[in-house]
Amino acid sequence: MNQTEWKSAVAEEKDILKLKEKGFDDQRINHMRSLGVTPQMMLAQWNTLETDEDREYYLHMTTGKKENYDKAFEIDPDKLSDKLFEAVGVYGRLLQLDDIKRNKRDKDGNIILEKFGVFNQALIDAKGQ
Question: What is the DSSP letter of 110?
Fold first, then answer.
């Protein structure tokens, strides 16, 4: 490992520690990494959030799990900032891109949107409540 790689690894570990101080665990960090989001990017996005409800929503969302999407969608949208909605839009797009990259197809050749489908279905279910 050269000096540049070492400095980069140290900076990433510092970002991970900061995320953990804010309530992120390894599962959340690894889920977001699987979508191509680095700890530095997560921290930058986190720092744009404006309300406690934004941060609660973001923590639920970053698990990638339906039960936590459900919890996120229970939060009163009037208490969420535009910055959170921007983050949700980016997250949804990342889920779609990951599904497309996986290239799983149904019998008709259509791409199956697994991760995005779970997220989208939780949103649809919440809207019906």
Answer: P
- The predicted-structure confidence for 42-99, as pLDDT tens digits, reads as follows 999 999 999 999 999 999 999 999 999 999 999 999 999 999 999 999 999 999 999 9
Burial track 23-59 (b if 16+ CB lie within 10 A, e otherwise): ebeeebbebbeebebebbebbebbeebeeebbebbbb
Q: Is 84 exposed, middle or buried (0-12, 13-18, 19+ CB in 10 A)?
A: buried
Tell me the three state secondary structure of residue 23.
coil
Separation between Cα atoms, residue 101 and residue 89, nearest integer Å: 18
What is the biggest distance separating any 2 CA atoms in the chain, rounded to whole angstroms? 54
